[in-house]
Amino acid sequence: MKNQGLGTRLSCAWAGRKSFCLVLALYFFTNISYATDRIVQETGVGGAYTTINAALTAAVAGDRILIVPKSGGDSYDENITVNKQNLKMLSTIQGTRFILRGNFTNFSNLLLSNAEIIGNTFATGYNQHFINCLFRGHVQTESNDASATYMDHDSILNGYVQISRGRISGCYIESYDGPCIKSLAYNSFDSLIIVGNTCIIHDSVPVGILFSSAATWAHIWNNFVLVYNTGSTAGGYGIQLATAKWPGQVNTCYNNTVFVAFGSDVTAGISAQYHYSPFNMQNNAVFTLGAPGYEFDSASAAITTFKYNYGTYGFTGIQADATNNGTSAIGIDGGNPSNLFLDPDKSRNDAGCNGGPYSINNFISNSSNARVLYMSMPRQVMVNQTFRVVGDGSAK
Question: What is the mean predicted confidence (pLDDT) over 377-385?
């Protein structure tokens, strides 16, 4: 086949097949589809769509829905259901979110960036990714156990995140109605990484992070959990590890800070109850008003490693060795001295959310420019060892 400007000449070995070749070539050329940018703008200038739903109706797999924020901070008032595959919904103005007032339901692979949603979000499809979004309501992604959700640098105000598997990193979550982050899936057979988040919980029986999934491995690192117990009696937990997947991996709980603020106390800062999953728990710091910093019940013998943890009021249900400190929650240069846990400045690990290679400071940024959102690599590399580095980033 030779290109001749806009035309195409087909050469076939047998003259009798020329017409067949031409028809076949035209079939393939006419069935090639290209992704399209579909602009949403409130006045429809330049042929833009005036509603998000109109753009979604016209969209096909691979399209981008580029949404111009309305003037004066007004919202697009519509309920959205995304039922097409591989779409991207983005703000046209870097660092400025478009505002959607209504419930948002996603049944497909979707990248959503720089959106503010005033309503509840239900993500029941596969592999959704939310970047730099503001959710004023609950984010529920768990009704489909096969659904992987990735949330990076998002804010959830007056709502919680319910998730099966994937990652939550660098998010700010403030909840008045249940745990800030909760995993209750049963069939996901994967892992959930909860890293570098700020969780503020106001509740009469508060729980900042609840992990209770027998089919998901837990990796809970460098989170700051602030607890306001609004009830009249002690109750709740900063982090509650009810169960996690086993065997196959060791579940990890590293370098988290739990701070119980004003109000009634909690039952314990970090609790491991009613589970048999192996957990490696190191370098955490817990401030309570008098409750134990750490509580383990008799069924939690699978806590395989408990070292370099700090808490103001000690430990219940576990024999803590001398690396742990039950009278103080300040562990500057007091975490695990191994190279695996060095701080970003290569000094010894600081217990709590600021220490270690996944320091919460890595996830705090007010920039809307291109940036790395999350990077995964081995904590230690040996000479001549082959290793893999995986990163997620955002260009806008």
Answer: 78
